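Final report, Chapter 2: Outcomes

The project's central promise was a pipeline that accepts a single protein chain and returns its three-dimensional structure in a standardized token representation, suitable for archiving and comparison. That pipeline is now operational. To close this chapter, we reproduce one record exactly as it appears in the project archive, with the input sequence first and the structure output second.
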Amino acid sequence: MAKIGQQWLNLPQDILLEVFRYLTFEEKANVRATCKYLQQLIDHPTLWLNKTIVLKSLQNCNSCFWTTLRKRRIKSLLIREATPKQLQKMVNLIPNLAAVSMDVKVNVERLRALRPLANLHTLQLNNSSLKLDQELLREVVNFKQLTTLGLCSLVSGHSSSLCLLAELKKLQSLTLHARQKSPSLSAIQYILFRLPKLRELSLSSVDTWENLSLCFTAPEKKTPEEAGGLESHCIAQLQLEKLSLLHSANGPLSRKALKQLSNVRSLSVSLTKSCVSRNTDFVHSMLGGLPNITELELSWNGPFGEFVSILPSNLIRIDLVNARLSDADVQLLSDSSGKSLKHLGLMLCSGITETMLKQLPKQFPYLQTLDLSGYRLLNQGILFGLVEMSFLKEIVISNNPHLNDIITKQFRALTDNRVHLTQKSRRNRKGCDCIFYSQFLG
């Protein structure tokens, strides 16, 4: 056995690193603890590219820990608990951080501690007590280099304060998720038409927005005299490619608004349980007015049949949450997008039957990922039937009592480990776990 272990260690480093890429965090930690040689390999930066390290408390991070992060060239951190002094120490020890997400109570002092991070391009602030007052927003816009900004579970302040975000001219992705009092529609309009590089937008609100079209309608041009000489340049056409509207309760969008959204390819809509008729008209206007959508995420507790006949053709990705499905709905989806669809998510949908699940390989033969979270109907026979899907790479089977370790190992053997089975519940692709998903997963 010792000789076999020695021969294994004699493999070229490139091969070992390729093997280690497939290990979980816990498995990497076990390998790292065996010897100094493997410790150095596990800490190689190529194994930690695009990884986010979650820090529950900066107080517990010693010098050895920070040295390890520097060796791995970690660029992204999620911080659960930290004081301003601890943040200052972190910045001094890892000055090349590019992405920081903070769940701690954010104030001006904590944000100020991040100022030396010259390479910071992503800032995510998640806190239920986050109030967007003028002082805090002025500190946020000091990070002129930001390309991604997320403000989640916020309490919106004065609309004029929110307009300060228009100073972040390099911004490509913006998330504004309100916990109380919706952000002013006029303030959002002001921001959107002054950010020429913005490609992704996610908005949520607890309140009903009476006329969401205002956000996406170009403001009227003002003369320099009318603007008092302070009006910044206003773009003529929005360049949004990804749009997420959570907790929506609106009527149809206007033609002018839809024209401004003509570049949208990825659409996510979460509808409130009230105002069912208005919600239906709202989605109809979006799907009918945005024919170029290739990715759709729809969360609604009504029948999917309301929209399946007007879905854009050639969808590449679709996620349905809480919708009511029928065999006819799934067949219509197959007829329109069965040959183009690469991802199908059916999270917590009702009306799912064993027959419906057994038909998936024939209806969607080119799927690469399939999310069947929470379905007790998914048994061994149905799972093994999915082996027919030759392009499949991943299946989400969370909260399923029938599929034990023995069955999943047998499935992996049948696919030669081509398909990865995950037990993790589906999460927001934007990396935000705020109020929208809690209502479905709580």
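Archive annotation: Residues 311 and 366 are 19 Å apart (CA to CA).
This record, like all others produced under the grant, will remain available to the consortium after the project formally closes.
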